[in-house]
Design a protein that fits this description.
This protein has helices at 5-13, 19-32, 44-60, 62-66, 106-113, 156-163, 180-186, 221-231, 268-283, 294-321, 331-342, 345-365, 394-404, 408-414, 443-454, and strands spanning 39-42, 74-78, 117-122, 142-143, 146-150, 169-174, 189-192, 213-218, 253-257, 287-291, 371-375, 418-425, 431-437. The chain is of the alpha+beta class.
């Protein structure tokens, strides 16, 4: 597997390398991989100071150091979400200057508490509005598996940095597939948690009416489980903490969706990967329950409308509240803001009502099945430039994103958790990702199934983790 964050943390804990050495290795890898465009802002001094502090803690307070699951592990925050103190976020936009840096969000504080050493920000499209990470201000983020292709978006920089081994794990956000799509493009594990499971305070600047969540992109399921355990719970927001659920996996009903309809067809090799994953679980004694696209079609359409309306209105409100010079934004961003300003309140209200029905319909499906296997991407990661932002046609842009990942928004609008991982590779050696959804609060079940599929060994990382001893 060429290592993960758990391996790197163990090497640091055991004294095989120091946190400072791990940070120096990540900084060197970031310099070597600069043409990848994964990192939008690098703060080497911050990273080295954080690593030195962890090394001192290891000597002076070994028990406290050992209690941090990722003690000394270098990582990167996304240039959207957070914020993380000392890392000035611009959301991939020239509307903000890269200066100062806000105080830690609740989530950022937890990142530090579990031991991470931050040293920069990863590339995001302007305001996270794309499934590619190619902001006009740069850098253009490329897929380390094939630099001619996108690394996905909007957490594309995070995914590229992790897949390339610059870091073993990275902060990411997901409002419309933005953790899962880049993870799927780069052969990583990406999970969007249950709504409200991860803290969004104190400002809730990335709340987006509840559709956005933050976590990470990872090289393994065990890293995903470990970071979710370290960051989730007691979120102190508008949603109740989810209660632990029984993850008895002896004989469960696995819903299988192996069709995405005539409007958004998924290529055969990607559907075959989903079916192969279902067979692997069936061989363990689980029951496969075929599901049809017609059971999802109206919810997928409603989810797309909700995503479009919520991000448009949010962007219009942000520009007004911060008195930003909108004329300096990319043409597509300006068009989304104009769309938000033009949206009648009654239309937004109807959209939000429809979103509630999306959740209700999914609950009805989960009366019949315990989890659902489905495609993540319709086709392989597209060429750089396939999601341009130099135009004002928001409907065209939204249609392009839906065609690429038809089922991405469903988890965001419904609030249900979803996870993607690679389950093989195509003829061009690009990953064949699958997606698993489960009822709210059932992340343990998602992670259990994902670990079972990961154990098949159908995908291997191409690049080792910087600093990890062989």
């Amino acid at each position: 597997m060429q290592g993960d964050a758990t391996d790197l943390a163990a090497a640091i804990r055991q004294g095989n390398l120091s946190a400072a050495e791990a940070m120096q290795a990540s900084l060197a890898a970031a310099e070597r991989q600069e043409p990848l465009g994964a990192i939008a802002y690098l703060h080497a001094a911050m990273g080295l100071a954080s690593a030195d502090a962890r090394d001192r803690e290891r000597q002076s307070e070994p028990d406290r150091f050992a209690a941090r699951p990722f003690a000394g592990v270098p990582t990167l925050a996304k240039d959207l979400g957070g914020p993380f103190a000392g890392l000035p976020v611009t959301a991939g936009s020239r509307l903000f200057e890269r200066k100062g840096g806000e105080a830690d969000s609740d989530l950022a504080a937890r990142f530090r508490d579990v031991g991470f050493c931050l040293f920069g920000l990863t590339t995001s499209p302007e305001f996270g509005l794309s499934l590619a990470s190619e902001p006009a201000i740069g850098p253009v983020c490329r897929n380390p598996l094939d630099p001619a292709r996108t690394a996905g978006g909007s957490s594309g920089g995070a995914a590229a940095a992790v897949a390339a081994g610059i870091v073993a794990i990275a902060h990411a956000t997901d409002a419309g597939g933005s953790i899962r799509v880049p993870a799927a493009c780069c052969g990583l594990v990406g999970m969007k948690p249950t709504r409200g499971a991860i803290p969004g305070g104190p400002s809730f600047g990335n709340h987006l009416a509840g559709i956005a969540s933050e976590l990470s992109v990872c090289r393994s399921v065990r890293d995903t489980a470990l970071i979710f355990d370290g960051l989730s719970g007691n979120s102190r927001g508008p949603f109740a903490d989810t209660s632990p659920v029984d993850i008895d996996n002896e004989r469960l009903r696995i819903g299988l969706l192996s069709d995405t309809g005539a409007a958004y067809p998924t290529e055969g090799d990607r559907l075959a990967a989903v079916e192969d994953a279902a067979r692997a679980l069936e061989n363990d004694g689980h029951v496969i329950v075929p599901l049809s696209w017609v059971e999802f079609e109206s919810s997928v359409a409603a989810s797309g409308r909700a995503f479009a309306d919520i991000v448009s209105v949010n962007l219009a409100a942000l520009i007004e509240a911060a008195a930003l010079d909108e004329s300096r934004a990319e043409p597509l961003t300006q068009a989304f803001a104009a769309r938000g300003r033009a949206l009648p309140a009654t239309s937004l209200w109807n959209t939000l009502s429809d979103a509630v029905l999306v959740s209700h319909k999914l609950w009805a499906l989960f009366d019949r099945v315990d989890c659902i296997l489905m495609p993540m991407l319709s086709f392989a990661p597209l060429a750089i430039g396939s999601f341009p932002s130099d135009h004002a046609d928001t409907d065209l842009h939204l249609e392009r994103m839906t065609a690429f990942a038809p089922l991405a928004c469903l988890a965001n609008i419904s609030g249900f958790p979803a996870l993607t991982l690679a389950f093989g590779q195509d003829e061009h050696a690009m990953p064949l990702p699958v997606q698993i959804m489960a009822p709210m609060g059932h992340e343990p079940r998602l992670l259990s199934f994902a670990a079972r599929l990961e154990a098949e060994g159908r995908w291997q990382h191409r690049f080792p983790v910087a600093g990890l001893p062989s």
